[in-house]
Write a structure and sequence with these properties.
Layout lengths: L4 H17 L25 H5 L3 E2 L9 E3 L10 E4 L2 E4 L8 E3 L6 E9 L4 E8 L12 E5 L36 E8 L2 E6 L2 E7 L3 H8 L16 E4 L6 E10 L8 E2 L9 E5 L5 H4 E4 L2 E4 L5 E5 L6 E9 L10 E6 L9 E5 L8 E4 L11 E2 L2 E2 L13 E8 L2 E6 L2 E6 L8 E6 L4 E10 L2
Antiparallel strand pairs: 1-13, 2-5, 3-4, 4-13, 5-12, 6-9, 6-13, 7-8, 7-12, 9-10, 10-11, 14-29, 15-18, 16-17, 17-29, 18-28, 19-25, 19-29, 20-21, 20-28, 21-22, 22-24, 23-24, 25-26, 26-27
């Protein structure tokens, strides 16, 4: 980006110090949204969602992805499809239902609503070992809090990780008869519960704390509870009226649909370097153990040889795990000729403590939230990076006139009315050692 390097270093140190000193700072008010998209029919997936690996577990019409717990088929009573929703009927006696597939690392989203005083749950990594699904699968609680006299932050309230972790006080749950939006993310030991766009539970399932929580809970006597590497997703029949719809999942350990690997894990095939002072690629960039290592000097970038227009891009980055020193870099999108430092493009920032920021380079056509825009920089909504030296993931959705930046599974920024130009994808060398791996994309048809 075209600012004096000394000023940028000052900004880097100041912002890194502030964010790292207080990484739990609450996010500011939501971004000003782009113009609304055309409404989708219930259960429909956009082309971008499909490219990102999402698929339907319930299409609003059929129950083909579900069966009864410990049963070969879907229950003949107690559950029915109703107005695009999957309804559990009060007193119907259908029992819990589970997905026909099993999932390890996954992301699940759905909507649910309950009748007064209703109780239910979503279990995951369920095995058919015991009498019920909850005896092996951790539970995202579904509840009419008010009807049960439960405090919103009770260990058994809506959104809690039942009997293990209470929901955060920021939780917002809609009243009975209205649909709530749930998201569950489980990956590499990290587990998150979200409710209506707010993260309300975050913990790790690969720690002694997790084992201690289970040992102190009612689940202690059930072999396999909370420790299975994969299992079914279950919807609970607790004897009450509950409705589920828009049930979607993606397997986070699977390749993206039509995945294109931009880095082969061995060498720099497919990449072209442009560096200050006519530097050579091998002077700055190297590959070791499936990781691209950038020394950071001289300034410049590597870019793809090919052009890409609409795609879902995923990559992981970290700063040096040895020095754990804060640094700067970025992912440049829709890079336009000529090569220069820096080329016309949209930058997804990787400066320490600023991942999720946008930089508009060379007056690229785009709009962002005006309340977070300062010159060419649009600040992220909140902080979502891992500690220095640990791996982070960027998921960047470049979808026609819209770009979305997701850091470690959290949406931090959006741009709209973006110039839809074919261009390169570039990774910056900008003064600090930084590592990249697992760089791949899926085209959006």
């Amino acid at each position: 980006m075209k600012i004096a390097r000394s000023l940028k270093v000052i900004l880097l140190l100041a912002t890194a110090h502030a964010a790292l000193a207080n990484p739990q700072t609450a996010p500011p008010s939501p971004a000003t949204p782009p113009p609304p998209a055309s409404p989708q029919s219930p259960g429909a997936l956009t082309a971008a969602e499909q490219a990102a690996g999402w698929r339907l577990l319930f299409d609003g019409k059929t129950t083909q992805n579900w069966r009864g717990y410990k049963k070969p088929a879907f229950p003949e009573k107690g559950w029915r499809v109703e107005d695009g929703s999957l309804r559990c009927q009060a007193g119907g006696g259908g029992g819990d239902i589970i997905t026909t597939e099993q999932f390890g690392d996954f992301e699940l989203t759905l909507e649910w609503k309950v009748a007064e005083k209703a109780n239910s749950g979503i279990m995951y990594r369920v095995a058919e070992k015991h009498d019920t699904a909850w005896q092996t699968g951790p539970e995202y609680q579904i509840l009419d809090d008010a009807g049960h006299g439960a405090e919103p932050t009770d260990m058994h309230a809506a959104g809690s990780l039942y009997d293990l972790y209470a929901p955060a006080p920021e939780k917002v749950c809609k009243p009975t008869g209205q649909f709530n939006q749930t998201r569950i993310l489980s990956r590499d030991g990290l587990l998150q519960h979200w409710l209506n766009g707010v993260k309300i539970v975050e913990c790790r399932t690969d720690t002694q704390e997790w084992k201690d929580k289970i040992a102190a809970s009612k689940f202690a006597s059930y072999e396999g509870f909370g420790v299975l590497p994969k299992g079914h997703i279950a919807l609970q029949d607790h004897g009450n009226d509950v409705w589920f719809r828009n049930i979607r999942v993606r397997d986070l350990s699977a390749p993206l649909p039509k995945e294109v690997k931009l880095f082969n894990g061995k060498d720099m095939t497919g990449w072209v370097a442009h560096l200050d002072g006519n530097g050579k690629l091998e002077d700055v960039w190297s590959v070791k153990d499936g990781i691209i290592i950038c020394k950071g000097n001289p300034a410049g970038y590597i870019r793809t040889a090919a052009d890409y227009t609409n795609y879902v891009l995923k990559l992981e980055w970290r700063f040096s795990p040895i020095t754990k020193q804060a640094g700067n870099s970025g992912v440049l999108l829709r890079v336009q000729a000529p090569d220069k430092v820096w080329p016309k493009s949209v930058e997804a920032q990787l400066q320490s403590a600023s991942a999720g920021d946008f930089w508009n380079i060379d007056e690229f056509a785009m709009k962002t939230a005006p309340e977070r825009l300062n010159g060419r920089n649009t600040k992220k909504t909140h902080f979502a990076e891992r500690p220095l030296g640990e791996w982070n993931e960027y998921e960047i959705i470049v979808d026609h006139a819209k770009i979305t930046l997701n850091v470690n599974g959290e949406t931090l920024n959006e741009a709209w009315d973006v110039g839809e130009l074919p261009g390169k994808i570039a990774l910056q060398s900008e003064g600090a050692e930084i590592h990249f791996r697992n760089i791949r994309l899926a085209p959006i048809d």
